[in-house]
């Protein structure tokens, strides 16, 4: 947790501290501990991504390799964050994985409409969650290299 | 005339009238013809009379001339004798030409013979005077001549008398014929006049007056006034007409009662946008009178927000398109609005629209309440799915961390308890998931399409592969007909039924599961899923499809009690039925049908 120096591999947007801790635990278990940054609401996520507010000093071009985005967030909800990221040409190539605690279809449909790259339904079973996180880490951090962004 | 139609009556009278006229013409014609014959006969006989008289005159001239010659022997008197002979001869010739019947011919022969006798005597006397050139003085000779002449005169008179008698008869015949003809003509004329009068009387009293009265009745009926129909006992066309009018009046009365009684509002609107007629339900519903409704364009009474759609609907109607369940609001006297659901048909030739509106205000508010409830329920479910699962994830997650990372520090009993905590958290997670799925099913609109039931079964079995691991299950799956339904939901039904069949047959060495269809007498297709598993006691069958209802203990067979409730909900939504037959330890068979049309469904929330 906390702000790591240098670039960030994973931006975790999660308001529930339990879920956040479990996610970080899962990352640790899968040796994906380095360069994870946790923000606790949608507004903070947008400040981080666009280097504004408390993150004004951050290099805006230094994009996270993947954003894990909870949908139900205080202040600005996950779908709004997703919309802003995908609308902005400088950030739209960042892969966004939706973390949702429900199978409510309309969330998933809306997420895809806004350009989400993938989604994980947070299961109650911890093992499943750990497995999902591992697969996700392998895919987005190791296999799926994002295009080099020339903008900004 | 009671059972005679008017046409038959008129036809009969016309035939009688014609017969009378024809009879009159024939009779008077015969009278004239008969009289003419008698007159002709009388005329002929008068000719005979004239000729007979001519004979007599000729003979008298002869006799007078001869007598003077015989007395004087002066030839000067012979002139009359010669002329008289010529006259006699000529008249005899005329007479012979006229006479035709036997009696007269006999008399004519007699007259001719007596005349010839006298003439022969006369020729002898003249010859002796010629020879002596002296007057005849023999009185006996003169007497003989007189006798001969008297014989002729008698014959002549007799003929004359006979002819006179015949002429009298002929004239009397002619007169009688004339009288008869005239009398018959008079009678026939009278009959014709009577018939004409009867015809006229019938026309006026039996036809024209009743028609006028029926016309007045019809005008009353058309104007909606009660009509006194008084001729319905007649059996002719007017009786038929009056009975038809009475039936029409009765039907109109029925319609009027319905029109007045109906709580649905009726209106006849013109293409000009004004109601022509409205029923009393309007006033009962809105408090606005029929007179007011028909005095202004109906759009004035429509809610301002509904005017555009109402106008559009009106134009469609004017183009001949029927209206089915168009909904708008009409104002009430107190300023409130009532929702009306419309059915309307245009009649283009008359430029009229016939409309029936049902007050659906209560239904509308109920629908709105349901929509609101649905939205709340949706928000609630959404919240449940996120918020209820989060603590479960935390419990399960941290317990697993304890078990994985701190296992060496834990005693066996502590690990067992932690396993139980994790298992319960998992079970509650499943309960939440199932419950959410169940509540979602109720709100989802049906996405009906033709789908292969066999494919649905195949996909359900693919999903059930994990449950089949380490099990010996024999499947007997028939070819299933295609169904009309929501593929996702129907697959869920097969998933739940097959899942149960697999689950409850786990105690069998070889589980046998059969999927098939049968056709009921009604033609309905019944799908079934049959197993040879644990079955259940039919006395609890009524609990089978209730949410969270379970017929088996949790430690025997895991589950949440939602699967069959979900299947029941899905089948009901399709308009079908689901039921089961089973016996303890003898397996269970679940049956379901898919109705043609879905049961009433909430309109999709806006």
User: Could you describe the largest sheet of chain A, including whether it forms a barrel?
Assistant: 5 strands, parallel
Number of strands of chain A: 5
Q: Structural class, from helix and strand content of chain A? A: alpha/beta
Mean pLDDT of chain B: 85
Shape of chain A: globular
Largest protein interface?
A-B, 17 and 25 residues
Low-confidence stretches of chain A: 1-5
Helical residue percent band of chain A = 25-40%
Pairing-aware structural class of the strands and helices of chain B?
alpha+beta
Query: Total strand count of chain B, please?
Result: 12
- Name the poorly predicted regions of chain B: 597-606
N-to-C series of helices and strands of chain A: EHEHEHEHEH
Largest sheet of chain B: 5 strands, antiparallel
Distance between the termini of chain B: 76 Å
Shape of chain B: rod-shaped
Order of helices and strands of chain B: HHHHHEEHHHEEEHHEHHEEHEEHEE
- The oligomeric status of these chains comes to heterodimer
Rg over CA atoms of chain B? 65 Å
Going across the major beta sheet of chain B, what is the strand order? 2-1-5-4-3
- For the termini of chain A, the CA-CA separation is 28 Å
Could you give a short description of this structure?
Chain A has 152 residues and is of the alpha/beta class. Chain A has helices at 17-29, 42-49, 78-87, 105-113, 126-143, and strands spanning 10-13, 36-39, 66-70, 96-100, 118-121. Mean pLDDT of chain A is 80; it is low at 1-5.
Write the layout of secondary structure elements.
The complex is a heterodimer of chains A (152) and B (606).
Chain A: E1 10-13, H1 17-29, E2 36-39, H2 42-49, E3 66-70, H3 78-87, E4 96-100, H4 105-113, E5 118-121, H5 126-143
Chain B: H1 6-72, H2 78-98, H3 102-132, H4 139-222, H5 237-261, E1 265-270, E2 275-278, H6 281-286, H7 290-293, H8 307-318, E3 323-331, E4 337-347, E5 352-359, H9 361-405, H10 412-443, E6 449-452, H11 453-463, H12 465-468, E7 473-477, E8 482-485, H13 487-504, E9 511-519, E10 525-531, H14 563-573, E11 578-582, E12 588-592
Parallel strand pairs in B: 7-9
Antiparallel strand pairs in B: 1-2, 1-5, 3-4, 4-5, 6-8, 9-10, 10-12, 11-12
Helix pairs in contact in B: 1-2, 1-3, 1-4, 3-4, 4-5, 9-10, 10-14, 11-13, 13-14
């Amino acid at each position: 947790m906390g702000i790591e120096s240098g670039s960030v591999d994973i931006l975790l947007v999660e308001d529930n501290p339990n879920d956040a801790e479990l996610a970080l635990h899962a990352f640790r278990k899968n040796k994906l501990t380095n360069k994870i940054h946790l923000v606790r609401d949608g507004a903070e996520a947008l400040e981080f991504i666009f280097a504004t507010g408390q993150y004004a000093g951050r290099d805006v071009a230094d994009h996270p390799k993947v954003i894990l985005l909870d949908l139900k967030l205080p202040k600005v909800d996950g779908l709004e964050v997703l919309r802003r990221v995908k609308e902005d040409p400088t950030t739209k190539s960042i892969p966004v994985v939706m973390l949702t605690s429900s199978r409510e279809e309309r969330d998933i449909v809306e997420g895809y409409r806004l350009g989400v790259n993938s989604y994980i339904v947070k299961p109650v079973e911890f093992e499943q969650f750990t497995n999902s996180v591992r697969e996700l880490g392998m895919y987005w951090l190791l296999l799926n290299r994002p295009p080099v962004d020339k903008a900004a | 005339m009671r059972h005679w139609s008017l046409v038959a009556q008129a036809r009969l009278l016309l035939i009688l009238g014609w017969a009378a006229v024809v009879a009159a013409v024939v009779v008077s014609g015969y009278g004239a013809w008969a009289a003419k014959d008698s007159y002709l006969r009388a005329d002929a006989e008068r000719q005979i009379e004239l000729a007979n008289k001519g004979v007599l005159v000729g003979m008298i001239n002869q006799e007078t001339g001869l007598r003077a010659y015989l007395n004087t022997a002066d030839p000067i008197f012979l002139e009359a004798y010669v002329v008289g002979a010529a006259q006699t001869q000529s008249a005899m010739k005329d007479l012979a030409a006229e006479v035709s019947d036997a009696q007269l011919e006999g008399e004519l022969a007699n007259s001719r013979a007596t005349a010839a006798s006298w003439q022969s005597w006369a020729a002898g006397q003249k010859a002796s005077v010629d020879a002596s050139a002296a007057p005849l003085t023999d009185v006996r000779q003169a007497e003989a001549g007189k006798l001969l002449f008297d014989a002729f005169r008698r014959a002549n008179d007799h003929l004359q008398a006979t002819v006179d008698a015949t002429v009298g008869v002929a004239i009397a015949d002619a007169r009688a014929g004339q009288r008869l003809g005239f009398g018959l003509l008079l009678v026939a004329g009278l009959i014709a006049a009577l018939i004409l009068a009867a015809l006229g009387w019938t026309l006026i009293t039996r036809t024209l007056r009743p028609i006028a009265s029926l016309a007045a009745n019809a005008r009353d009926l058309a104007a909606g006034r009660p009509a006194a129909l008084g001729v319905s006992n007649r059996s002719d066309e007017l009786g038929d007409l009056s009975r038809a009018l009475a039936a029409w009046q009765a039907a109109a009365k029925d319609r009027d009662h319905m029109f007045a009684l109906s709580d649905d509002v009726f209106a006849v609107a013109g293409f000009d946008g004004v109601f022509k007629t409205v029923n009393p339900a309007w006033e009962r519903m809105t408090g606005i009178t029929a007179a007011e409704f028909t005095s202004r364009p109906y759009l004035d009474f429509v809610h301002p927000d509904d005017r555009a759609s109402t106008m559009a609907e009106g134009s469609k109607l004017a183009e001949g398109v029927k209206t089915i369940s168009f909904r708008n609001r009409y104002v009430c006297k107190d300023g409130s609005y009532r929702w009306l659901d419309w059915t309307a048909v245009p009649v283009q030739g008359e430029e009229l629209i016939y409309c029936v509106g049902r007050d659906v205000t209560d239904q509308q508010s109920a629908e709105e309440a349901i929509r609101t409830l649905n939205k709340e329920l949706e928000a609630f479910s959404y919240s449940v799915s996120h918020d209820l699962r989060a603590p479960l994830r935390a419990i399960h997650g941290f317990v697993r961390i304890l078990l994985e990372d701190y296992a060496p520090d834990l005693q066996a009993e502590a690990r067992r308890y932690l396993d139980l905590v994790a298992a319960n958290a998992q079970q509650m997670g499943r309960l939440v998931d199932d419950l959410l799925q169940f509540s979602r099913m109720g709100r989802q609109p049906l996405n009906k399409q033709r789908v292969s039931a066999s494919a649905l079964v195949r996909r359900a079995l693919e999903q059930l592969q994990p449950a089949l691991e380490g099990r010996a299950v024999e499947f007997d799956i028939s070819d299933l007909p295609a169904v009309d339904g929501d593929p996702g939901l129907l697959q869920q039904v097969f998933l739940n039924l097959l899942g149960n069949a697999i689950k409850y047959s786990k105690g069998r060495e070889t589980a046998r599961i059969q999927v098939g269809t049968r056709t009921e007498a009604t033609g309905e297709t019944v799908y079934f899923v049959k197993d040879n598993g644990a079955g259940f006691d039919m006395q609890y069958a009524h609990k089978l499809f209730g949410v969270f209802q379970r017929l088996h203990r949790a430690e025997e067979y895991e589950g949440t009690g939602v699967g069959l409730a979900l299947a029941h909900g899905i089948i009901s939504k399709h308009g079908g039925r689901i039921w089961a037959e089973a016996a303890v330890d003898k397996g269970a068979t679940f049956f379901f049908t898919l109705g043609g049309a879905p049961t009433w469904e909430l309109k999709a929330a806006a």
